[in-house]
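User: Could you walk me through two proteins back to back? I'd like the raw sequence and the structure tokens for each, with a short line separating them so I can tell where one ends and the next begins.

Assistant: Of course. Protein one, sequence then structure:
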Amino acid sequence: MKDYDISENLLKDAINYPDSVTEGYGDRKIYQKKLDSYLLRVIVKANKGIIRVVTVPYIGPGVRDMKYAYDPETDILLIKLSKAKPDFGEQKENIITHYSRQGKPIEIEILDASKTAVKIVETIVQSKRALITTQH
């Protein structure tokens, strides 16, 4: 909790009064609560307490406006999360995230998309394999 600067009361509030609850992998439940411009996700394993807390940018209802475009010539995948115009962007490796003035993600550009997508899928597959191996 300290790593994310989230109070114990906020975690309890998310679990006791969530905006939504979904089934996670195995016997986990995912409690979600909107907090200003963020979405708090509390992943709970039955009878084990809180096992993971994740904060992610809250995108909100504009997600319905999401559009994808891929340019094979430049190998760039553009994911538009909103119709709004971006104000600034940040690049981390092959991913550029464009934000509104308020700091909400507007669009995501994935450079060398074909290679980056393979890396993402490989990471997901390896994580799933590791999880399955530790559960058996």
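----
Protein two, same layout:
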Amino acid sequence: MRYWFATSLIAWGVLGVAGVYWYPLHWYSASTILFAAGIGCLANWLRNRSFHCVITGPLFLIAAILFLVGSLGLARVHVSLVWSLLIVGTGVAFLLEWKHAKRSASYYRVGDQRTTISYSAATLVFSVAGAMASMLFFLIRSFRATRSFA
């Protein structure tokens, strides 16, 4: 969990700095947050072989690419559909891990499924927080764009 979070946080920081120079990757955009989460998942899979990361890593990266394409105006992206599929896909990944992945007791350090549940909760919270932040900033930006200054 700490490795995933640290890697995601570093990736988010680097992408956020890049967003200063290229606006579609600004620090609060959905694509930046999802790229960071996807990079964290792939790094976590390479280090810890977490089963859910095989599914959620590419899922986050695909969603990030979709949001980036949408913010660049290259295609119309249905934001609510992408977020819905992302949340369902993340839930399915953790359900599959909980049901089918075999781990040694040393992996969990507590010898039970509580660690998997905390990974699931943290990833879901991170995804939902990113979604809420992106939607909030989108609504603020839309409101400012539609106000007339007479």
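Residues 104-112 have pLDDT under 50 and may be disordered.

Let me know if you want the two compared in more detail.
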